[in-house]
Structures are given as C-alpha cells and as structure tokens.
Write the structure tokens for this entry.
Amino acid sequence: MIDEDDPDPFAPTSENMSANSPVDFSSQPPHLQVIYALVTWLHLQFHLPRIACQTVLTVLACLLFFLNPDFETPFRQLTVPSLLTCQSISILAVCPTCKEVYPATGPASCTSCSSPLFEDEFTKRGKLRKTQTPLLCYSYLSITEQLSPILAIPGVEELMDQ
C-alpha cells in the first residue's frame, strides 16, 4: 500500500532551511518590506518569471537610490530565492495530473500516476538547469511562521485564553 504522506512534503529539510540564517523581515525598513512583498506577490500569484522579478528589483533599487541616496537600499544581491528565504516561504512540487504534493527534493515523477514533477533537466537551448523547477508549485509558510505574526497582535493571546 502506498503511503501518500511518505515522504512528508511539509517536513522541514536542510534544503528548505537557508545556509544563511533567514533575515528577520520585520527588521527591514518599510520601503524594503513593500518591495519584497510586491515582487514576491507578483512571482507567486502571477508566475512572473524570475528574470522579470530580478529586473523589477533592480529598477526599484535604482529608483530608490536616485530619489534619495540616503535611503537604505538592498546592497546584497536580491533574487527571487533570496526573497522567498527572507519571508520563509517554502516551495513544494505538485503533480500536475493528480495534484499530489511532494517535497521540493522529492521524486522525479509522481508515485501515484507517474507524471513528471519537474521541468526537463535541460533548457530549450540545451543548457543544464542550475536547480530543479517544479512544473506546478505550492508555496506555503510553516504553521509557526503563520502563528507568530497573529500572536504578536495586541489582545489576541487574551482572546485565545478566553
């Protein structure tokens, strides 16, 4: 019998965790929080390609610097993966056929219907991909990441105690 939760797609793995400690999003200046949220939303909601997201990040950083050189701009290289890490968003692979969820480092094909889970190893131009890209992604925050901001709202703990 096939266990649909083996391996557990939501279990944290060392690959999900960044080699660098994640950036505390709330400690970022408000203008950077808005930029991070905007580009992450465009990528996750509308599937804006990573190269387009990188262009948006670069243009916004240049505009910020041009408008006010004293504004804190992101001097480390901002990429879509670094934004997702900054916001602790995990990406899981989803079977395009039966919608079964797998860890990002899971099998190459679905264990239920044998459909491929990831894009081809090589691009259309024949270059080797640097990372495995799921054909269909599921983005999520862990339950602890979701609860922290909720519990930080004044009065929520007291309401829960009641």
The chain is about 35% helix and 5% strand. Residues 16-21 have pLDDT under 50 and may be disordered.
